[in-house]
Amino acid sequence: MIDVVVLFFLFGLAAGLARSDLKLPSALYDSLSLILLLAIGLKGGEGLAKQALAPLLPQLGAVILLGVAQTFIAFAILRGLGRLGRADAASMAAHYGSVSVATFAVGVNWLLVRDIEFEPQMAVFLAIMEVPAILIGIVLARGVSRDTDWRALGHEAFLGKGVTLLLGGMAIGWIAGPDGLAPIKGVFFDLFKGALALFLLEMGLIVSRQVGELKRRGLFIVAFGLGMPLLSALLGLATGLALGLSPGGLTLLATLAASASYIAVPAAMRLAVPEANPALSLAAVLGVTFPFNILAGIPLYHALATQFTGATP
Amino acid sequence: MIDVVVLFFLFGLAAGLARSDLKLPSALYDSLSLILLLAIGLKGGEGLAKQALAPLLPQLGAVILLGVAQTFIAFAILRGLGRLGRADAASMAAHYGSVSVATFAVGVNWLLVRDIEFEPQMAVFLAIMEVPAILIGIVLARGVSRDTDWRALGHEAFLGKGVTLLLGGMAIGWIAGPDGLAPIKGVFFDLFKGALALFLLEMGLIVSRQVGELKRRGLFIVAFGLGMPLLSALLGLATGLALGLSPGGLTLLATLAASASYIAVPAAMRLAVPEANPALSLAAVLGVTFPFNILAGIPLYHALATQFTGATP
Amino acid sequence: MIDVVVLFFLFGLAAGLARSDLKLPSALYDSLSLILLLAIGLKGGEGLAKQALAPLLPQLGAVILLGVAQTFIAFAILRGLGRLGRADAASMAAHYGSVSVATFAVGVNWLLVRDIEFEPQMAVFLAIMEVPAILIGIVLARGVSRDTDWRALGHEAFLGKGVTLLLGGMAIGWIAGPDGLAPIKGVFFDLFKGALALFLLEMGLIVSRQVGELKRRGLFIVAFGLGMPLLSALLGLATGLALGLSPGGLTLLATLAASASYIAVPAAMRLAVPEANPALSLAAVLGVTFPFNILAGIPLYHALATQFTGATP
Amino acid sequence: MTLPTEKRTLLTIVTEAVVEQTLLRDLDRLGVRGYTVSDARGKGSRGVRDAAWEEAANVRVEVICERAQAEDVLRHLQARYYADYAMVAFLAEIEVLRPEKF
Amino acid sequence: MTLPTEKRTLLTIVTEAVVEQTLLRDLDRLGVRGYTVSDARGKGSRGVRDAAWEEAANVRVEVICERAQAEDVLRHLQARYYADYAMVAFLAEIEVLRPEKF
Amino acid sequence: MTLPTEKRTLLTIVTEAVVEQTLLRDLDRLGVRGYTVSDARGKGSRGVRDAAWEEAANVRVEVICERAQAEDVLRHLQARYYADYAMVAFLAEIEVLRPEKF
Ligand SMILES: Nc1ncnc2c1ncn2[C@@H]1O[C@H](COP(=O)(O)O)[C@@H](O)[C@H]1O
Ligand SMILES: Nc1ncnc2c1ncn2[C@@H]1O[C@H](COP(=O)(O)O)[C@@H](O)[C@H]1O
Ligand SMILES: Nc1ncnc2c1ncn2[C@@H]1O[C@H](COP(=O)(O)O)[C@@H](O)[C@H]1O
Ligand code: NA
Ligand code: NA
Ligand code: NA
């Protein structure tokens, strides 16, 4: 049965394709994304408080490598098979090497609705995996040039809104613990799924605007937008198995790997690799990969995860 | 005892009349109206899932006729007794032939607070009754002229924000059913009454701005703004009795009929009948009819509904 | 243990100091402050409904005097020790003679989390204490000059957003009573703490912007920003003891007295005493006094309150 | 060295938010190649429009183009909108680089 | 055929949002018949005003009127606001139809 | 008595919201002493930018300065932004009081 939050996405998509006047106030969209990021962070921090942190360090190294590997692979495919120019290929590779919070949130919701457990450090992975692909993408586009304003980029990467909220939420959740968080459960946990539903309604509207660009770009974009997340999900599953994650954790790591950024990376690439065409990457990420992941990818990744771990679904 | 949400309306009205600086951020007002529309749609769709849809078709025909009849009657009164020009009369008639979501929501709240049941298709009626009066109003103003951009109007009418959200919410509620909706109850059902309270606070402020125009226009506007909803409510009750609705359903159909649009119709008339004075219609709709309906009309329509059906209130 | 809402403040502060891109949509901040003000008012009004109002009148007189006294004392200190010009001293004194809703809300939350009771009239005190300091401040800056547009000022003072919402909320709470408010508990009571947490996140960001100004102004601002709330808290405790308040009420009255306005008063002073430098007052109020009160002041005032009343904490 | 700027005309229109889409379609039809829109409020002969709600909101539209085209658009506005809508429009002389763009 | 436009003056004022109401009342008192307002942020001699909160927000006010009236208003702004408020104001020559309106 | 105004140049830039911070830093570096920013949407050679989300939003930046400085800035914009970003910039002649301020 399809989750209700995904129905909101489909509704937004349909409304957008039918050219309805519907749109969310941008302040609502921004508020929802802020609440979702904080909620994910709080939940993760609360969980981390219950375990030792030292064993996490090698795991962080592993997921950083995962993101870096994805970026290089995507770049090679886009240059080789896709015949994209250097800048376009590097920019798009960075999108796919990084992660999408919205996709992750749908994955979390999918597991929550089915009462499937997952490791609290998944929220840390989400924060950590956003950044490395951006740096690799810039180096792929430019080489290690003198021109690049690394300070501005580092700032953009580590102090961007998304990462700040995730890390801040985690810190608060870690310090406060379950009892300390109890008074604010009302806003951050009880409303999570409803907030995600509204958020996905707007995502549907945004995705519907990619259709024109998609038509113009032909098949390669569609093929890449479907093939790359599948490949990445397998890499994610392999990494997760090596780290000994639970089926829920495996599902989320595969989802993270399969997901592609449509907020942090486009903004960073616009500044650092301005000659890359932003419409191209967004058409693939939003027009193909995001819908694929939330409609078909997540259940598929979970099926693979249970099979690989031998767990009964 | 007066409902707390209506107290918020009175508070907004008082603050506005006292020229307080109070105002809601427009993004909050838009967000609240979006949530209310979705909630009404979801609730309706959830209910519809439990019954056969075929018997609804004649009911839809009946409520469309109801809206059309109201528009013609209002036009005749405004031309005959009110001596308004053709454009002004047609535009104002369209406002009264259509419906108001805010009034409907107050009616729903009134019934919910009193644990009175009503049919789920009331949400469908709300969506359906918004449009026909607009088309009739344009024809009354212009005749069936070549000039009218019917495509744009059809778009405005059927893909406007309100109708899209109602229909989308219904579709989601219908597909997901009660179990599927459970995870998002927090946002859409538990917060419904609080959201309505805030929404009515802003409505009070908006209504307070109509007072100047009302004073300028004299008695006829006030008389029409009170008489027309009463007449319409009776038509609505008659229609509802013919359809065999429950007392709750009768109350809501009378409320719908008595209500007058202040969002969709003004926007459509501004484009299609620009020579009509928008201040005139808004003064009647917002300055007289809306307050009357939520303060006195709804309880009255319910009293009539119970009397007509012989139910004990 | 530090309250979770205060952790959100510290997070905002840290993010701001690290120059993160994080910021709340201004519509969200405005919406949260509206909901907090209404919630405080509703809660207060609900409580007042249970008691006679006549005995309140002398209490209101006492807290007005308290605010007036604070303003004069602050002015004397700022002129004498601080060697500020007349306009700057008067404006800053008005900030400290008035109150801060955000500080009050943190105090309320502190007591709620610890299940400590307080009198419902505290919300009335909050509304009442906002205004007198503004009038005194203007007179201190200008004398009772002909030029002052007292009508505009009265409007600003009594019909400003904050006071309107507090009084409106109280009226609604008073009329509706606990049963009438039940349907809107979801929005106004259950979400109070979560809304306060988000609000304080933005407060942290705002406070972080005061650091530059603070550095420029040197020690006196810091000393005054710490000393004045302590002095005011003692005056507040004395007043509260004279009025026979409970330990919870005492804590809140001390908190109110110790708090300094950063919304209503800056706006009023900008219009009435434009030659005063607004950056100076805001640096003291936001950069020193607000953080001090919510981090250390409130627990301290409560400790004093329990000691003075001989209650066991 | 002074820049090789060329003269163009800036047409600014302030009108009711409710006609934004219709107006922009008209601009497209009249061959305008670009425009910039921002939200506004204001006061004029049709009273205060304080943007408190959609009905009372204004938009401010700017079009850079050649003088002749600006006059065409202005003529169209006069015929189609001036009588029935809250609207103000005015022309100013400006300079641009890339004259082929406007 | 060229349009029968007439010259007017556009006065643009950028200042603190907190004085919006006061300023608009002043404009009314000085006989101005219309204005357009939009929200803005900025930087100037009084530092960065990034609109992060009400205190730090700017508004941008435009008035179309005759040159003499624009100068009157400017003179008033200079006397009443320039010393104590973050404010910038400037004049530009523009053309309008319907000269009787401004 | 006519006012002692002085001529200055108003440079208006409409571009992608994503470059706002970078652009403002550039303005600072080029010695500009103030600017005003507001949110906008629009259409141009790079398609419709309807501000539906951050990626598709524009900003409108105004700078009052001397002609020479305005030309410097424009030259910098041409070199650094015109090729890769949705951007439009234009100059207008205006008058100010307090010439020392700009
Ligand atoms: N003299 C004026 N100067 C600047 N803006 C104006 C002026 N008159 C009208 N406006 C703007 O144009 C809108 C419509 O004007 P009107 O059609 O006169 O009501 C107003 O709401 C203002 O935003
Ligand atoms: N040179 C300038 N060009 C454009 N806008 C300016 C300029 N100087 C100041 N402003 C605007 O006017 C406001 C007040 O300026 P000031 O009084 O110089 O602080 C600033 O916040 C800017 O929005
Ligand atoms: N002819 C024009 N008149 C007014 N604004 C324009 C014009 N062309 C472009 N713009 C604005 O500048 C932005 C970037 O333009 P472009 O680089 O042509 O896509 C657009 O999104 C519009 O906001
Ligand atoms: Na990825
Ligand atoms: Na009706
Ligand atoms: Na105080």
Count of domain modules of chain A: 1
Helicity level of chain D, as a percent range?
Answer: 10-25%
Hetero ligands:
adenosine monophosphate, sodium ion
Q: By helix and strand content of chain A, what is the structural category? A: mainly alpha
How many structural domains are formed by the residues of chain D? Answer: 1
Annotation, overall tally of beta strands of chain A? 0
What quaternary form is this? heterohexamer
- Mind telling me which CATH architecture of chain A this is? Up-down Bundle
Give a quick rundown of the structure.
Chain A contains 16 helices and no strands. Chain A is mostly helical and 313 residues long. A five-stranded antiparallel beta sheet of chain D has the order 3-2-4-1-5, with helices on one face.
Overall description:
The complex is a heterohexamer, with 3 copies of chain A (313 residues) and 3 copies of chain D (102 residues). With 313 residues, chain A is mainly α. Chain A has one domain (4-12, 25-309): Na+/H+ antiporter like fold (Up-down Bundle), CATH 1.20.1530. Chain A has 16 helices and no strands. Chain A is globular. Chain D is an alpha+beta fold and 102 residues long. Chain D has one domain (8-95): Alpha-Beta Plaits (2-Layer Sandwich). Chain D has helices spanning 20-29, 67-80, and strands spanning 6-16, 35-44, 47-49, 58-65, 87-96. Helix content of chain D is 24%, strand content 41%. Chains in contact: A-B, A-C, A-F, B-C, B-D, C-E, D-E, D-F, E-F. Chain A binds chain C through residues 25-27, 30-31, 34-35, 155-156, 159-161, 164-165, 168, 171-172, 175-176, 180-181, 183-188, and chain C through 1-5, 7-8, 11, 14-15, 18-28, 109, 112-113, 190-191, 193-195, 197-198. Strand 2 of chain E pairs antiparallel with strand 2 of chain F, so a sheet runs across the interface. Bound molecules: adenosine monophosphate (AMP) (3 copies) and sodium ion (NA) (3 copies). One sodium ion binds next to helix 4 of chain A.
